[in-house]
Amino acid sequence: MSLEKEFKMILQELSSEENAYAKIAFVGQPGAGKSSIINALLGHKAAATGQGTDITREAAEYSYSFHRLVDLPGYGTDMFRFQDWKEQFRPEQYDVFVFVFSGKLTGDDARMLEDLKGYAENLDRPRPVFLVRNHGEELEDEDLDRVREDVYAHLNMTEKDAPLYFVDCRYKTGLTALSEAFRVMDYRSLWHDRVESHFYKKCYDKLEICRKRVRQAIDGHKVAAGLNGANPIPGLDIGVDMAVYMDMFSDIRKAYHIEDKDLSRYSVMPIVRQILNLATKNGLMLLLKNSAGKVFVQKISKYVPLIGTAVAAGIGYRLCEYAGAEYVNDCEEAAEKIMDALMREQVKEWEKDTRLLLM
Ligand SMILES: Nc1nc2c(ncn2[C@@H]2O[C@H](COP(=O)(O)OP(=O)(O)OP(=O)(O)O)[C@@H](O)[C@H]2O)c(=O)[nH]1
Ligand SMILES: [Mg+2]
Predict the structure, then answer these.
(1) Could you list the residue range(s) of the whole structural domain that residue 264 is in?
(2) Quick one: which of 219, 222, 238 has its CA closest to 230?
């Protein structure tokens, strides 16, 4: 399969998989109403709810528009002590957090919010946090400001760090405002980096495999080039066997799975034009002249009659190694440009999807 196709497949897999969703994790004490809010947002009973503790015992994901709602168990119970809960459910993997509470806040709650702030700083991407006071019906209007002050003071944050919503699951109030807040989030910025970083990492892993194959290809040709010097390079007193170089370049491209038809699609890129040009006799001559200058052939070659053909063969060997390395760099640069182009196309697709979904 060609390198471009391999890159494309990586991107397609990543975009269609888990990664292309903003994952909204619901966190909070047991019984705060995390599962009930998820059910209310979904409009049907998907998650189990109940009066006891530890009703939710495993992380569960539910599709919600172009997001995933993630129901997590409550923390601070015998079964899930805060530290154990964190290790088991790794909240740092999620993109958006909904902190649900319904009564008194605890030290664990303050620690949880402290951690949430920390994740955003470490990962250098936005990680919105929403505070949700459930059981809203039990509050009178005049209580709302007090709850608001109380929660921000206890969690050591301000409304700017995390907006507060009042909802009630029994009477289904406040949920529209919450779902509207999810809807208008710049959701792509939440997971774009994750998809992009996975994409580049996987592509570079592929290139690493190619690089190993390429070394073998160059090594074989170097020996041939050292022994063979049929075509003189104009202006230089040294001969090279063009066929050896042509074969080597072709083998390098093969090792990278770079196919000519891939390249023609990207031929507006200078680096790609260069790769194509080097596959021609004139282009190759030019590269060799440049490379030869760099391996000091000019200086040494005029002494060939004095120093003998063994040294000249050594120069041919180095010249080939140098030209091979140059061509490898070009191929890698072209591969990187292909990755960038594919990523840019994908971003355009996502933007189109976002516009459709937000209409
Ligand atoms: N009156 C009233 N009861 C609610 C409200 N929200 C949830 N409940 C009830 O509170 C109990 C706990 O709700 P859950 O949604 O299971 O709470 P949870 O946060 O998911 O709990 P864990 O899964 O154990 O962490 C259930 O019996 C719900 O029916 C509400 O707004 N008003
Ligand atoms: Mg639950």
Answers:
(1) 192-358
(2) 238
